[in-house]
Amino acid sequence: MIKIPRQKLAVSLLPLPLAIGLLAVPSQAETSLEEVLVTAQKRTENLQDVPISITAYTEESLNILRIENVADLGPTTPGLVTAPAAGIASGTRIWIRGIGSAQVSIGIDPRVALYTDGVYLGKTPGLAFDALEMERIEVLKGPQGTLYGRNAVGGAINLISRKASTESFSGKLKVGAGNYNLEEANGYINVPLSQSVAVKLSGMTRSRDGWVENKGPGPDFNGRDAEAWRADLRWEPLSTLSFDVAYEKNEADLEPQYSQSVFGDGTIGPGLGSLINPPETNDRLDKVTTAYALEKSHLDLEAYSVFAGWDFADQHSVRLIGSYRKADATDSRGFWPETDGSLLPWTDRIVSTTGQNHVLNDHKQYSLELNFEGKIADGLDYTAGLFYFNEDTGAGEDYTLTKDLVDFFSPSAVRSAGRIETDAYAVFGTLNWTPGAFGERLHVTVGGRYSEDKREGKVKTFVNQGPLPDFSALVFTYDTATGLPFSDNRESNTWDNFDPQIILQYDLNDNANVYASYSTAYRSGGYNTDATTLEGFTFDKEDMEAFELGYKSELMNGRLRLNMAVFYYDQSNIQVTEQDPAHPVRQNVFNTDGDSKGFEIEATAQLINDLTASLGYAYLDAQQDSYEAVFRPGTPDEVTVVNEGGSSGAPENSVFANFNYRRDVSWGELMANLNYSYTDSYDVTPGTELMSVSLLDARIATRWDMGDSGALTLAVWGKNLLDDEYHLDRINFSEIDGFNAPDVAWFGDPLTYGVELSYEF
Question: Which residues, if any, are the signal sequence (predicted)?
Fold first, then answer.
């Protein structure tokens, strides 16, 4: 077999789009850009008419970019950062414009709201599911609350799936294969049963071996086996009345993510830290030998939803969305999987012979949303809504890093269990007014939202696996009033807020407009199940004021689309998490202030009839004020961590460039796509910096038109063609006083490539 170096392979693919162009016949392509439709304001509109900063993905662009889950949106959306959480394979953290959540605790709401078909997904654990038959995805930047069910501080991501349709019998099947033994298949079939009833069945299976080979016991690292299926039913008893019912099942078995020991800026013990697990290199490893077997993680999702729409009068409608969702996630991670579990005499920690940390989450949620939309008079429209959300989430963890009392019972582990119950209520609405006095060029939107969140939190931590029976003893969690550990705690509280919004939009001409918006947003207070002090268990709500100026245009007879936005966010009582030096896997929540400001540019141009180019750029300056984090005040174990401020999930610069070439040929169509993304280095948590990353992806395809029989498409693709090495997450253990252990980092995927064949009719 002839082996081609990866770097040469990547570079050799770059001229292929030009070569394809030389072979093709003259194009019959459109000379202007296609209209992009979105439903960001609960109605179908042209992207250019919506006074919100939005990045929209069509079904075709999702397929070309191989966006399979929410995490894949990060590199292709400037201003958006997605990352797993310290080896938690089933969870995804999301930041928009530097507003997001570094911690995945069940008691802390995400700042960015994720919706699937209008249903809010309440918790970060379990978000790493593969999306099934997406028709489009919309990324909305900035606070979203006057139109959506749950309050969103940083923005919202809407996943919109393909619905059952009574219009025609249709379907699609795609199969593919790639390196690391990738095997995948997905598709759907839509069957109209009558003029008013249709069903659609969708399915997906995808498996890939891990790219870090494990020569020791246990599985390889970073592999994935996932499958999902969905059933949709549509019933249209009247032309003005429709019902959509859906059931979805999603399962995944995930090999553990490899936490590679790397050199850090801190000091690893008095010359002895390297004995724990000496970092071999800061370069990405593809072969390791573990000292113990790590278990696979597992994700199990079930979702039911019903959507009813009724146009009850001329230009007035009501929509109902009801849902139930259940998610069970079991994650396993090992911070130093090469360690043999023996006692480390020069440190006050041991590594248990079980060698891993288990994180178990079970999440159940119900939601009900009622939306009204209509026209009051010429130039005066309204939207209004009521929302109810209930969630019951439990989390359990065991820790193999132990201290003080527990050392006496070695080997042992600290285990914790927490549960959060939430009832959230909201009423929201907007008025959209276009006064005739300004030639119908001025548009005024006034809206507001009232939210009320009732919460109850419970947490219990105990010692297990020792020679004594299980007993309650919070080794890391203290009641500072008594200086004694507390073993069980339960609190309840209610938080509420009113958030207004005003938007002024002015049409410069038929193809360009400017807008200015002001809004506020809040994130509910709650309970931190990872707390290490009693007073750290409860934290208060946070607030934000947001200002944005925007410009949207279509120029050069529709061949250039140019959108720009500048924004400023003033944040107060930001809920930040700080690692406890006594137990770095656990964190307390503190409050501080900060701001975020920046600007974004998105441009798409039809360079020639067959070639379209897109460019997105985001500049971000996000800062949090310095603060002191005091753990166990008033006890012998009191420690103060001074955080000098900073940010998380806020790269200063991010860029995405895309070239899309399409040409009609005698048998159908030739297509080539080249994508480049760059993300500056940024802190994933304040003080923990991830390196900058540049990614180059490509796809080449040909499509055969088969008339009434459908179409066949063959494509080859590659991602990270230059095999760039970059971190998805990192923990700087070496910078924690007294911990004496190497840093660990989780690397992103290396070069991957494959081929796919699809048939649609």
Answer: 1-29
Q: Which of 754, 753, 713, 748 has the alpha carbon at shortest distance from 260?
A: 748
Q: Does the predicted model carry a pTM greater than 0.70?
A: yes
Q: Is residue 83 a part of any domain in this protein?
A: yes
- How many separate domains does the chain show? 1
Residue 1 lies in a domain: no
Query: Containing domain of residue 124, as a range?
Result: 6-760
Helix (H) or strand (E) holding 443: strand 442-464
Could you report the per-residue pLDDT of 445-482, keeping only the tens digit for each? 999 999 999 999 888 765 444 443 333 333 445 455 55
Task: Please report where in the chains the tokens 């929201």 appear, as a residue.
Answer: 428
Give 99-104's long-range contacts (Cβ < 8 A, gap of 24+).
Answer: 99/153, 99/154, 99/155, 99/544, 99/569, 99/571, 99/596, 99/622, 100/154, 100/648, 100/649, 102/576, 102/577, 102/648, 102/649, 102/684, 102/685, 103/530, 103/577, 103/587, 103/589
| Cβ atoms 648, 625 nearer than 8 A | no
The DSSP code sequence of 520-538 is: EEEE--EE-TT-SBSTTSE
Q: Residue 664's domain is classified under what CATH number? A: 2.40.170.20
Q: Residue 483: which residues within 8 A CB-CB, separation 6 or more?
A: 634, 635, 636
pLDDT digits (tens, 9 = 90+) for 655-686: 999 999 999 999 999 999 999 999 999 988 77
The answer to whether residue 744 is domain-embedded is yes
